[in-house]
Amino acid sequence: MPFLATGAILGYIVGLLLAARPLAADEALKMQNYSFSSQAGYLGLFGAMIGALVAAVAYVLLDRRS
């Protein structure tokens, strides 16, 4: 369980950092319809899911090794 929680938390942080990064002018025009909160929420949730999946795979691989 700590593997999943750590992976999810790290993934959420990565998602927040992706939402907070500065955008080029072209990308900024495309994203102006979305608030920072919605971008951070969606990217954070997606990052948390990917982080938990990677952590679960790492746990299974480390468990099989021992």
Please tag this protein with its features.
single chain; 66 residues; mainly alpha; 85% helix
Explain what the structure shows.
- This protein has helices at residues 2-20, 25-31, 36-65.
- It is 85% helix and 0% strand.
- It contains three helices and no strands.
- The model has no long low-confidence stretch (mean pLDDT 86).
- The radius of gyration is 15 Å and the shape is elongated.
- It is mostly helical and 66 residues long.
- It has one domain (2-65).
State the low-pLDDT regions, or none: none
Order of secondary-structure elements: HHH
Helix content: over 70%
The major β-sheet equals:
none
- Integer-rounded radius of gyration: 15 Å
Multimerization state: single chain
Specify the number of helices.
3
Counted up, domains total: 1
Average pLDDT level: 86
**Helical/strand content category:** mainly alpha
Secondary structure tally: strands:
0
Distance between the termini: 18 Å
Strand content: under 5%
What is the approximate shape?
elongated
